[in-house]
Batch of 2 targets.
Target 1
Amino acid sequence: MDFFAEQDKARGKTKKLVLLFCLAVLCIIGCVYALFSLLLLQDPELSKSAWSFQLFAPIALGVILIVGLASLCRIAFLSGGGKVVAESLGGKLIQPNTSEPLEKRILNLVEEMAIASGAPVPPVYLLEEKGINAFAAGYSPADAVVGITRGCAEKLNRDQLQGVIAHEFSHILNGDMRLNIRLSGIIFGIIFLSRVGEIMMRIAFSSRRSRSRNGDGDGTPALILIGLVLFVIGLVGGFFGSLIRAAVSRQREFLADASAVQFTRNPDGISGALKRIGGFSAGSQIKSSLAGDYSHFFFCSALSSLFATHPPLPVRIRKIEPNWSNQYPQTDKISQTIESDSMLASGFASSSVSVSPKDHPSENDPNRSMKDSNASPMPFHESLGGPNQRNLRHAQSMIRRLSPTLLTLAKEPAQCRCIFFALLFDSSNASILDQQAKSVLDLTDQATIDLTIKILPEIRQLDEELKYLLIEECSSTLSLFSEPQIKSFQSLIESLIRADEQIDLFEWSVQKVIQYQISQKATPGAKALHGRTSLKSRLHDCSIFLGAIAHYGGNPENADQAYAKGFQSLERSAVVQLPSVRQCGLAAMEEALSELSKMTPLAKRSFLEACSKVAEHDGVISPPEIQIIRGIAAALSCPLGPIGYPA
Amino acid sequence: MLHTLIAVAVLLLIAVFVVIGIYNKLVTLRNRFENAFSQIEVQLQRRYDLIPNLIETVKGYMAHEKETLEAVIQARNQAQTKLESASRNPGDAGAIAGLAGAEGLLGGALGKIFALAESYPDLKANQNMANLQEELSSTENKVAFARQAFNDAVTAYNTYKQTFPPVIFAGTFGHSQNAALLEFDGDEIKKAPKVRF
């Protein structure tokens, strides 16, 4: 599985869907038109207007209006971000600083998976449902949320839960959620026709009753008929639409299952989870009245019906585990043992007051013994395109390198701001530091500034890659901010960056990363994630970044070589000379970025790969290289897993 | 005939969409401030958990101040109950006001202890006490921040509810009551409880 290829395919699919949708609307218009004409032919007075443009135009207009408006409304609602879906399903946000072991375990698993895949850590919602189920919703990785039922949290062990979460992340990374949103919107539009028909019939019947009392009755039978026609067409259209949706959705589920195995390299996890659902009396049911509308978002069918959006359990298990014995475990009885197991796993024995910060890989985690075997730097391009087991371990070991205090701070809404401030404080220049401290104090309080100063030395010692990891750790906490809080935070960040009246590379890239995470959360779907521009037409813009990495990243004398290596992987036929250092300034980079963000996902992939080739040329990935690449990835809305860190 | 019918149908349709939109938005906004409340809950709960430790530490030194200590425990327990009832329904103005009142009392009682602690030099030197103070004051900050987020979310909900057209439907959809802001009156709570001695 590959993020970029799947994104590309998803776009293709969306095109096909839009085409199908237009066809469906045309068919509906045709049907309504034909039925009306036949009706009018029965009446000698009106038969003139049958099969005429006068009839066709209003019908076409009406149908397009109804279906189009309904679809757009639905899509707009669902595109409000994953938050909206989770909230309307009644999900309760798990606070990042929770101290409940079960919730903590979920958060840790989600965090590891997010860091391994390079997506911002999504907020997690808990649904108070008995069934074992989970869902992912949102428009893009940056505004995605993950939802987990209480049953899922209580009945599954760590590996199984990891499998479920990997499955959901595959939906997030593959762009399935956007596809789902559009599909649901279209089907809603068509079904809405039948509602309109129903309303029309009701109105007709009630007015007929009142009119018959007055003694004159005319026109109402026509209204009833129109209503009936719309009702039937809407239902039939909706029926076929749902069938198509279910078929598409089932394919995506198989893909997500396969991806989950690929991410975790642990088929037992996901198959174990599926088996426990099979052996559970509550199964995967969701009791919320909206479950039907969102059935395709879930891990496992929320409802059992003809329109199953998920393949049957045994089929899914067999795909992962071909010689499965057909036996389900007795999940109903499992709860207690798992509960204690999770307590042990999360290392929450008895700390009552102070929240012990991290449990990451648990003491009894079988993977633990291998954790130190991969201390060698990881090839950077390996972290492109989705997590794998190695990324996952890498993420775990990186999280462990952060100090517990910092991790606790990252999960506290009031205090995670200090991390950003400390990252941006200029320690080399006392007067600028003073000015920065003052602007922080203006918008916050004394305690915030004290804490920032306190953690400053520790932050400064962090490896480049760990700084970005820390920012990512904060991302789910940022979603707790209210709108005014986000705004004041953003303007504060800006003023800190501009305090010395120049922007350095690190500030530039941190700004990009924050922008990417915040703007997507504030207005999901406002900007297209990817465009249609090909790589060939943007070679010049690419060369600026390759040049920048070559110049700033390694030995200047080898810049030519490094650049050539990267450019070759990008394009063999044409050649753009290495731009001079002056041409690779931040202003030029900024300009080039806005063009590059319009490229197709696959073009972005090749570009990021070329960047990595330049960075890896001398065998060392230096801080400027990490900064540039992180900045690019964020600005291009590409998830980027952990990069190799200095051994 | 046909034309007026279509015109009426289109108007009706648009009206239906507007109403659906209003309903969804009301639900979303309410869920949002309810979720914001749970962040306050996390922080307040942490504070309530710290208080028994504080009492335990102080008890040995302040043997004569039994009443003050008991007042704190009582205030804490009451605040705990109020928090529970507020967290069941953060939209209920009465529950929120009850919580604010109980918090005010607790803040006052705590302030008293800290003022008294001034006159016990041994207590001032106690490492445990210093840690607790540090924890309490930083929790106070977190509460303030979470409260700001909650109040912003409540304001967004109330404002939306009172604008036109939502104001027509809010009552029908079960959003008749304004949600209450959580304000702690009494300055001793706005600042961290005085922990200097």
Target 2
Amino acid sequence: MLFLAIRHLLSRKRQTTLIFLGISMGTMMFAIISGLQLGMREFIVDRLLSNTAHIKISARDQSVDKNKMTQRFYPGGEVINWLTPPSGKREEAHILYPQGWFNRLSDDPAVYGYSPSLSMSVIISKGDTRYPAALTGVVPKLYEKVLDINRYIKIGSLDVLDNGGNRVIVGDKLLENLGAKVGDNILVSAGKGELRPLKIAGVLSLAIEEIDKTLMIASLNDVQQLNKTPGQINEISISLLDINRAQELAHLWSLASRDKVQSWDEVNANFLEIFVFQDIVRITVTTAILIVAAFGIFNVLSIIVNQKRREIAILQSIGYPPNMIMQLFLIQGVILGFSGAIFGLIIGYGLNLYIATIELNIHIGAGNHLIISSDPSIYITGFLMAFISAIIASLLPAYTASKMTPIDIIRSEI
Amino acid sequence: MTIVCKNLIKSFGEPPNEVIKGIDLEIRNGEFISISGRSGSGKSTLLYLLSTLDTPTSGIITIDNQEPDKLSVEDLHKFRNQHLGFVFQFHYLLAELTALENTLLPARKNGNQDEISVFVNELFERFDVNSTKNKLPSQLSGGEQQRIAIIRALSMKPRYLFADEPTGSLDSVNGKIVMDILTKANSEWGMTLVLVTHEEEYAEMAETEIFLKDGLVI
């Protein structure tokens, strides 16, 4: 029936072309929108995963409890009416029993690496300039195993922090804002009265301005000394052998600890919610286009089935059974769906390649052009959506045609 | 090799309107039989019943000792393809196919169009339509269209040829050409020819003439 189906399609060039273009347009739009959205998503996720561990264990903030304070100061059970009830944080949050975590993580075969750290807000002084920053103290060898940080270090390397020595690696925007350069000393205060000189030994850039203008990394010992909390950490970053187990393991570990244990997707839930919204928009737009194209197929095939009643009658009278009549019209839908989808995806792919070369006045990552994803799943999904909707749209007209009998058609013609 | 029908009744609608009212008939192998009668007498209905395109309300039809009613859909269509040929008043050619492609449609169903095309090419020459092979139906005259439709009906060398007023839409010259072809198919190749016509001249050409009135053979 392929021969006849192709002849049917070729005999109605205008209608065939319009439907073909409708399907092509749908798949092309899907490829472009998906390429753009997923490209940006891959970029964001890549950056997130580069500076976010698969699982993060952090200290839980402890607030002052009015009842506990009452019990402590008045253990006799007196009735106390506080004029100003005690409130606020009890102390700086830190992980109470880090060694317990280290032992557990070292023994867990699912863990690839872990890195203890102490993060704190600091004030940087350089000359007359005061600048807020986020200082993180790490053990370089452990930190490298968890986060691919060296990839973003533009000058120097994480190894310069190995032996302490009050060295620091700073974000490129922070360096720019401070008007400093590698080798300069800056004074850093943890708000505990002491200004400690740190030497800029490296520069990194995550290409996320908000982070790059505050980020500072130093050795864990140096940061603990600056904070006057030797041996204390407030975070453990963990990388797993299988990132897909992050949620499951975070949940499991959180059951046995009062520390906050979060998987990377929980930490970045806001970003991921945006991705879900993007998916909905993308699929809605594409579905709308494909529905229009599918209605086109349905309408045209329905009209053709009516117009071709005589041909259906003669085909049945010369021995073509109903299933072959059904095939005749179904094949037309399949050809339109298949060729329209392939053509649309090829054009979409070509346009994606072109869009990726357009230079913009914004910085995205290391470049100034849009990041387009060429994930094969985009093209496979686009093809399947178009192909399946074309088949569904052809089914009813094809079924109607197969149910016609030659005698009914001939009688209605008389 | 015969078509036999017994007490054939066909009615339509509710309450039932009997168009064929109990016909007994036997058509022998190789016979040329004409069915005529006034409009509404039931002659086309009888032809469609005999040719398996329609099913009787009651009564039995057997073709070569087989009851078409009892065949599966697949087998019935296979039977039509291999043993029955149809010529209608209108040519019913497929507009998007050339004349040659139209005539090879029955063979294409079985994938043996190469084998059948030798015979079909002979028919094109014999019926003086050789020059029309690669033309679309819309480029042919009415007479040529009907000759192509007859070649299509003859292409599988069917044992039974059913013609429903094949000259009805043609002028007298083309009508004679068509009748000449049909009678030759009967006399030279031994095809059983069942012709429905309202033209007395053509009805008289048959070995057996049947005249229908109000659904009965008179």
